[in-house]
Design a protein that fits this description.
This is SDR family oxidoreductase. InterPro entries: NAD(P)-bd_dom_sf, SDR, SDR_fam. By secondary structure, this protein is an alpha/beta fold. The chain has eight helices and seven strands. β5, α5 and β6 form a beta-alpha-beta unit. It is globular, with a radius of gyration of 18 Å.
Length: 260
């Protein structure tokens, strides 16, 4: 299927590896030119080179912390202030117990996983509306539908973003701009490795055993793949996705047993 987005320009955040890279790769495969962002410069530059060489598109890396005003300013400058596609993404806050977190912990989580995405939408969506076309995909978490106790900081921030998008998406759809969220369950990324390491340490089991136990709770009996996640993102950015507005698409291997 031709997704009809060849020649568009996309900003993909946290794209040097993991789910962000999966999204960047899938968009590049459709002929989309990219500005990609991450904090680690070396890995980001390597990723940019690999994607550009593989897909013959323009890929500009911007090493910056997207959760800060300065980082966003640098990325927006590289875009010339406009993009056709925006994929927001940022690493999740650390796990813990609800009694451990103070106000500063919550502010950092909200800055990183809620307000940074909102700021990017506020910067780029008005231009999309003026041009009559745009796509926004926010990478959130399956935890916004089934909160995970030890990820309370992430639950709080990402659920706030979900609420914002629910209202905002309906206000821009008539201008050809579709805003949606992708909700990943456990995927085979550094985040999963870190969570498994935490379980390993807490329960006195090996990391392999921790992973095996988690995989056993997923109907597919496996972690997700970044490339499959990226393909879902690319479809939400397609011309064919024009009637998908304000939705929360779950990619969790069926782990969450719900009807809606």
């Amino acid at each position: 299927m031709d997704l009809g987005i060849k020649g568009k320009t996309a900003l993909v955040c946290a794209a040097s590896k993991g789910l962000g890279r999966g999204c960047a790769e899938a968009l590049a495969a459709e002929g989309v030119n990219l500005v990609i962002n991450a904090r680690g410069e070396a890995a980001l530059i390597q990723t940019a080179y690999a994607i550009a060489e593989r897909h013959q598109v323009t890929v500009e890396p911007v090493a910056a912390d997207i959760t800060t005003a300065d980082g966003r300013a640098r990325v927006l400058d590289a875009l010339g202030g406009k993009a056709d596609i925006l994929v927001t993404n940022a690493g999740g806050p650390p796990p813990g117990h609800w009694t451990d977190w103070d106000r500063d912990d919550f502010i950092r989580a909200i800055d990183g996983n809620m307000l940074s995405a909102i700021a990017l939408m506020q910067a780029l969506v008005p231009g999309m509306m003026e041009r009559g076309w745009g796509r926004v995909v926010n990478i959130t978490s399956a935890a916004v539908r089934a909160p995970i106790a030890q990820l309370g900081l992430s639950n709080t921030a990402r659920t706030g973003l979900t609420g914002f998008v629910a209202g905002m998406a309906r206000q821009v759809a008539d201008k050809g701009v579709c805003v949606n969220n992708l909700l990943p369950g456990i995927h085979d990324t550094d985040r999963a490795t870190a969570l498994d390491a935490g379980v390993s340490a807490a329960q006195g089991i090996s990391a392999d055993e921790a992973r095996a136990r988690r995989e056993a709770t997923i109907p597919t009996r496996s972690y997700g793949r970044a490339e499959d996640f990226g393909a879902a993102c690319a479809f939400l950015c397609s011309q064919q996705a024009r009637f998908i507005v304000g939705q929360n698409l779950m990619l969790d291997g069926g782990a969450l047993n719900v009807t809606v």
